[in-house]
Amino acid sequence: MDAVPPKGIVGGGPAAAHVCGHDIHTTVALGVARVLARLRRQLSGTVVFLFQPAEETLSGARALIDAGVLERTGVAEIHALHCGPFPVGTFAATPGYGLPGQDKAEVTLPGPGAPDAARRLAAEIGALATVAPPQTPADIERLLADALTPDGPLARFVAVRARAQEAGVSVAYRCWPQERYGEVRADIRRLAMSWAGAAVRFPSEPFPAMVCPERDARMLAHHLRRAMGREAVTELHAAFPPFSGEDFALYLDRVPGTFTFLGVRAPHAPITAGYPHYPDFAPDERAVGIGVRAMAGWIAERTHRARGLPGGSGGSGGSGQGGPTTPTGSRTSG
Question: How far apart are CA 137 and CA 133, in angstroms?
Answer without folding.
Answer: 11
